[in-house]
């Protein structure tokens, strides 16, 4: 059997969570919340199941959820959208990204992605017959040199994928990045896929700049988000894609044959949650900032150098004062011998990275964060 993706193995998140379980290590590797989905949302979903709303929804999502997402976008980004024409509910951001990429990318096209890059982009681009042009960003700032990006554009370049707030670095794009990105997209007639799954999680007054805020970007964009991150329900696999009507029409042609529709009771529950408890979204950044601060304070006595996390629920640690192991070996050793599971950063890079940096997820109870930090402070 000839593999279509011969170079691809099992995702690092699967590997490290398995290792954590095997060694009973505290699992700060795969990104998922330890705390439960809000009571109201769970009860609503249970209620809709009980009421018998258990069949297919319209392929693009139920109207009330599209309306609530549009209302959230209007409140947060001051952008008025017709949800019926622009918002498609998907089975997680993963499906939205996959479908957006299949919609856009043709054989021979190139797509610019920034390494460290989330792991689902490249396989989707390659399945569409495209190739990735990797822009290598480095610790500790992971700043983007837009002249390097421009130099990577050629007549095959079809799209750029950005991710802000950024997994795994916790960086957030700034106004000068948006200006440069907009200039590039307009000048070279490119499309944009904007992965904004951590849109509600930014810290210390840093503002998330969504592609939805800028006409010049949004008219060329597929903007992707995830309810899993926002409502602590990563296992429901619920997300959405926002795009101009003509892009949405193309997106929906594929979406209907990837999954047709997504979990109906959750769509009703999420619509009720967005409408009746808007404060959950508003309080999310503060909630996670406290988590980040607990972990940062608990690690302050350690020999790790902590990189700044401006958003997401991830914190990067530089362990160069602690070990000479490469980051993959260091993470295996950490899970097996120290009892803490983390993600090595080099797996998010195409080119070899020798940085001694690992990612911790702080979407955990304070006791878990403190217990993990105590172990890490022993090193
Ligand atoms: N993009 C990024 C940057 C992510 O971190 C994740 C989740 N880990 C996803 C997309 C996928 O989101 P979902 O779980 O909703 O498919
Ligand atoms: N996005 C999560 C992370 O970055 C993992 C999602 C997955 O396991 N596919 O850890």
UniProtKB/TrEMBL annotation:
| Cofactor entry | pyridoxal 5'-phosphate
Which InterPro entries does its entry note? Aminotransferase_I/II_large, Kynurenine-oxoglutarate_AT, PyrdxlP-dep_Trfase, PyrdxlP-dep_Trfase_major, PyrdxlP-dep_Trfase_small
User: In Gene Ontology terms, what is one molecular function of this protein?
Assistant: kynurenine-oxoglutarate transaminase activity
Source organism's superkingdom?
A: Bacteria
Q: What are the residue boundaries of the Aminotransferase class I/classII large domain, all occurrences included?
A: 25-376
What keywords are annotated for this sequence in UniProt?
A: Aminotransferase, Pyridoxal phosphate, Transferase
Its GO CC terms are:
cytoplasm
- Keyword Transferase included in the entry's annotation: yes
Q: Which family does it belong to?
A: Belongs to the class-I pyridoxal-phosphate-dependent aminotransferase family.
Give the protein's recorded name. Aminotransferase
Q: Which organism is it from?
A: Pseudoalteromonas ulvae
